[in-house]
Amino acid sequence: MLQFTTKGILCVPGGFYIDPWKPVDLAVITHGHADHARWGMKKYLCHEHTVPILQSRIGKDIAVQGIGYHQPVTVNGVQISLHPAGHIIGSAQVRLEYKGYVVVISGDYKLQDDGLSTPFEAVRCHEFVTESTFGLPIYNWASVAVQNEQLQQWVSSNQANGKTSVFIGYSLGKAQRIMKALEGIGPLQVHYSIAVLNQAYESVGIRLPAYETADLKEDPKHLDKGIVILPPSLLDSQLIRKIPNMAHAICSGWMQVRGARRWRSADAGFAISDHADWGGLLEAINATGAQKVYVTHGQTAVFTRYLNETGIEAEEVLTKFGAEEEPEETV
Ligand SMILES: [Zn+2]
Ligand SMILES: [Zn+2]
What is the pLDDT of residues 293-319, one digit of tens each? Predict the structure, then answer.
């Protein structure tokens, strides 16, 4: 039913693509991250909470249809439905059914319930397309409750030492998780790029913890001893250095490995990810009952080999996904 083409993942009988990277007529989008939702499609189909994200990132005038989870639509005889992927708000696994044959394209996913995204739901299928961003046994996340406590404790110790707590996290997904973890423990200041995405979520009725937009350019003194959340692009920038009494923490799955290059420059690192860890990937794959697994991005070679060795038929496929949480580029 699927064909992996130079434009993206094609549903052959449906004639549409899932997360294509070149312009096509109909693109079914798993979630709003830039490597999965790109410019130039004639029409977009995605979860209703992803609609304002696409409008904010790609353009107000795009043709986009938003649907809820478990609300099937049929295109050329193929039934399309979206199921929670737990990755970021609005993220979806795409289930395709044609003449009784079922394929699920997961996009990016995680099994942990972050308290913001609709929790991941396993979907039975014949073929499953998976990511493998953290597909090595060394990646194994602490529970969300433990992660939240670690962030709160770090803020408390900074406050006791007269320091400003600066968190670095991806602006779509991670930043909102950090906000959620710190809800109620102090006023949260977020960078403009994060505030724009927060507004997109609030526009569809999602409630986020209270925040203010941090003005880094004017006078960073008002941030002194506060809590600030910034995107990775500001790491090592002039702006961040102007924040008084700054201690900065990087929140990324890559922080699980202490040798990560960025770790060395940070005051703290928290292994918090919106992707499944090793155990999560295997649990999700087993729960699908799929006879065939395609591995699209991340640790594709190692992970595919592991699946094959454990009796799950798997194949590595070449895609353009995976630029959102690279170890070197964006922490
Ligand atoms: Zn993603
Ligand atoms: Zn991805």
Answer: 999 999 999 999 999 999 999 999 999
Domains observed in the chain: 2-138+274-325 (3.60.15.10), 144-270 (3.40.50.10710)
pTM of full prediction above 0.85: yes
Strands (E), the chain: 2-4, 9-11, 16-18, 26-28, 43-47, 64-67, 73-75, 78-84, 92-98, 101-105, 127-132, 164-168, 188-190, 212-213, 227-230, 246-251, 268-270, 292-298, 314-316
HSE-CB for 204 with a 13 A CA cutoff:
19
Distance 324 CA to ligand 1 centre (A): 6
CA 327 to ligand 1 centroid distance, Å: 14
Dist. CA 110 → ligand 1 center (Å): 10
Ligand nearest to the CA of 172: 1
